[in-house]
Amino acid sequence: MSARIARSNPAMKLMVLFTISLSWAFQQQGGPPKYQYRDPVTSDLLLCDQCPPGTAVKHHCTADTPTECQPCPERHFAEHWHWGDSCQYCTSVCKENQLVKQQCNSTHDQLCECAAGFHLVVEFCIAHSTCPPGYGVTAAGTPVSNTVCERCPDGHFSAGGSSTEPCQPHRNCSDLGLKTLRWGTSTSDSLCGKRPPLECSQPHTVCHTDVTLCEEAVFQSIASLRLSSVPLERLLESLPGQRVDRKSVERLKKACSPQQQVLQLLRLWREQNKDQDKLYGIIQGVNHCERKVSRCNNLKNLTLDDLLKVTNSLPGVKVQEEDVQAVVSSCLPRQYILQVLHLWKTANHNLDLAKGLSHSLRVLRSQGAPRYLLKGLKTIIRIIGTTSAHKMYEKMFVSMLQDESCFKAHKPLNE
């Protein structure tokens, strides 16, 4: 389509130009956009159709003929309507760390975007940020945006160093039928291990590396607070901190006698809450007790004969000789006496360990036992049988039951 602008007086020309411009504006809404072109032969100002995307002007319009367009040549494009006589050249290569998203065609240039793991900053592709330990990805990076990290919530962790991994929930060892060896933190998962059979029903024919003799002595003093008369479920609900899971309690009830259930529950509860501040004193007391017993010089070189003398002098159910031999064959010498006494206590859970040792000491003295053996037993009695220590543990425990808020305020799992 074309139009001729008459060569007359200036006022007339202005009027015609205004009319043409107005007409052009209206035509743009319904037809091809226009452009002005002066015919080099007639000097007339013409209004020509622009060429559509993918083409370029081959011949401008005349007063009698419309604009003639031709396709863009290979590796060239025209993205919009225009009146140029050539198309734009396609981008030859993408920049560093960019990939071709869309190949060049007649209507679009070659489109590049950042490769996986990179995002655009100004004109360069920069690697996505990795989240630090304790933080996980909440929004993965894209070709145009960076990674978004947030601190892991309670019960979740992230070791960090990833630009894609969100925080992961801690493993629930109890649900897997395993024992929790280490509670998870914001940067590490829970560590699970095989759950050993409950000791009240397991024959003790091998060495136990986690000697619980001192622990049992401590909890024996706590259990003496008439806790055995309290229903196990009620005691479970009363204990502060993280509770022992129901599956473990059911296993305990099936495997242990009523007298042993309280001790075993306290032991499981201690294991569940070993990182709590209020339990620190009790745990340290147990560890200190076991260190002192194992380091006692008078107890480091006991023979099988010495151990049999001790077991025969203790009151109640006797430890079998083959079990004592198993201790000697599987344990270190410094562990002998603790293991043997542990076997005796397991078979005589109703008897007090300190009183049993005092009885053994009197019997051995009357039998003329070696001095080093008598001195070693006195040391054990002094370490685990101290009345003041028992009262201290009882006071600690009662204080904890009365002040459960101290556990709620302390959150060790993700701090």
Describe the overall structure:
With 415 residues, the chain is an alpha+beta fold. Among the domains are: 10-89, Tumor Necrosis Factor Receptor, subunit A, domain 2, CATH 2.10.50.10; 213-400, no CATH class. It is 38% helix and 15% strand. Strands 1-2 form a two-stranded antiparallel ribbon. Helix 2 (213-223) crosses helix 5 and helix 2 packs across helix 12. Residues 1-8, 22-28, 198-206 and 400-415 have low confidence and may be disordered. It is found in: Secreted.
Features:
single chain, 415 residues, alpha+beta, Tumor Necrosis Factor Receptor, subunit A, domain 2, two-stranded antiparallel ribbon, two-stranded antiparallel sheet, disordered N terminus, disordered C terminus
Helix content: 25-40%
Please give the number of β-strands: 16
Q: Proportion of β residues?
A: 5-15%
Q: What topology, given as strand order, has the largest sheet? A: 1-2
Major sheet characteristics: 2 strands, antiparallel
Number of helices: 13
The computed structural class is alpha+beta
Radius of gyration: 44 Å
C-alpha termini separation: 77 Å
Order of helices and strands: HEEEEEEEEEEEEEEEEHHHHHHHHHHHH
Q: How would the global form be characterised?
A: rod-shaped
> Unreliable runs, pLDDT <50, ≥5 residues?
1-8, 22-28, 198-206, 400-415
